[in-house]
Amino acid sequence: MREIEEIRTGIGFDVHRLENGRKLVLGGITIPFEKGLLGHSDADVLVHALMDALLGAASMGDIGMHFPDTEDRYRDISSIKLLKHVTDIIREKGYHICNADVIVMAQQPKISGFTKEIKEKLAEAMGIKESSLNIKGTTTEKLGIIGKGEGIAAEAACLLIKYRSTNQSLR
Ligand code: CDP
Ligand code: ZN
Question: Does domain 4-163 match CATH 3.50.30.10?
Fold first, then answer.
């Protein structure tokens, strides 16, 4: 049996403004809606919160440090590509992704009908099983910026595990 060296949790949070004339991209899929999220990249708030949770758990800062929004090469980039990169650098540090749980806060649209497709997309990008992911939605009961439809927020939590290498355990 492999000996565990470290178990680490991470959290992430993000908000983007909803605007006319933008596609709504959540979890790497386009969801039919009258508005979309505004941002330098595709503004995929779900993936942004997830990446921040992963980077946080690995003590590797946040997405702003890795992908500055002042850089043109990140303009309109698919956040799924950035997620692939984040999972690669986390694996390079020896971490295994146990699970991630994400909550999307949106008054509209309802995301429950899309969570299966989102999980498939994220699992593929992250190289993990769909059963290691959970995606859920909630409204804010029409209260505040989310409830008034001015934006969508997302919060994520994840768990990383590092196993002791065979050499280390021999001492
Ligand atoms: O407080 P709770 O989240 O249970 O209630 P709600 O905000 O009225 O949302 C009811 C249910 O709708 C949630 O539990 C989700 O299953 C779903 N929902 C969703 O899929 N997408 C959203 N943007 C909001 C809610
Ligand atoms: Zn963002």
Answer: no
Q: Is the CB of 143 under 6 A from ligand 1?
A: no
Angle, alpha carbons 47-6-64 (nearest 5°): 30
Structure tokens at 47: 């993936």
DSSP state of 144: H
| Binding site membership of 111 for ligand 1 (Cβ less than 6 Å) | yes
At residue 78, does pLDDT exceed 80? yes
CB-ligand 1 contact for 46 (6 Å cutoff): no
Our answer on whether the CB atom of 142 is closer than 6 Å to any ligand 1 atom is no
Nearest residue (CA) to ligand 1, atom 9: 138
Which tokens go with 37? 């999220």
Q: What is the pLDDT of residues 8-61, one digit of tens each?
A: 999 999 999 999 999 999 999 999 999 999 998 999 999 999 999 999 999 999
Query: Is pLDDT at 169 greater than 60 in this prediction?
Result: no
Q: Is the dihedral of CA 12, 13, 17, 22 positive or negative?
A: positive
Q: What share of the chain is helix, strand, coil (3-state, %, to 5)?
A: 35, 30, 35
Domain boundaries in the chain?
A: 4-163
